[in-house]
């Protein structure tokens, strides 16, 4: 298993969070096999794999039932392990080949209305260095569609405010150059020439754009807290199914681009999606909005 995880790290370039999830899933798989008297991968049968996948959804004394999405991820980790074992000549057959993982329900991304985004950004304030930072962070997230990890990982040299572009470092070591709007550039320029200098004085020096109160790099958790706190100040939901989350501005960015007429392939490139299929879920959001407008505006809709 360790060799497989090393392969995912070096050859596939999976993120640290994904690797942590895969390691946890595979540890559970190996523990289940061992408890069933299976000592090595060569002794695993299709029945073992099927039984494990079924158990993921049902849970057991030590593990609560997993959602369809989490069970699908765990099943993917197991199938990947068996395929890897075959390619490496460790076993003769892939016993997981015909095992199908649970299919997660297709969920539409949550997106804010443009007016709600404007309320959120306005609520960040500009009265202190931290508020200027918060405003710059939120403008950056909405202005580029960056993932929260891409935002907190951005370096000052990744920004070109004169050209209005940002270099984002995405999943799997992939990078992409994306445009930034005038609002994002203005907020970042105000932050970099004032508030960041003030915050950096308390630290030991870091190239990261967004800093915490001690002058160190802002963490993903802190960025989430900033978003949640600002959303509450703006009167937006912070609890329940419609709560503003770290991905909310990214979802809103994509949805508003498509609503404005952007081609789905362009949005795919801007978001850094490897497949256009991932991006196409946003088109469902815009179709739903079109249906709502049609239902209320067309005289023969009912």
From TrEMBL:
Record-annotated Tyr recombinase domain positions: 107-295
Domain of life according to the entry: Bacteria
Subcellular location as annotated: Cytoplasm
Core-binding (CB) domain residues: 1-86
Active site feature: 147, 171, 247, 250, 273, 282 (o-(3'-phospho-dna)-tyrosine intermediate)
GO molecular function, one term: DNA binding
HAMAP family (UniProt xref): Recomb_XerC_XerD
NCBIfam families recorded: PRK00283.1
PANTHER family cross-referenced by the UniProt entry: PHAGE INTEGRASE-RELATED, TYROSINE RECOMBINASE XERC
Entry protein name: Tyrosine recombinase XerC
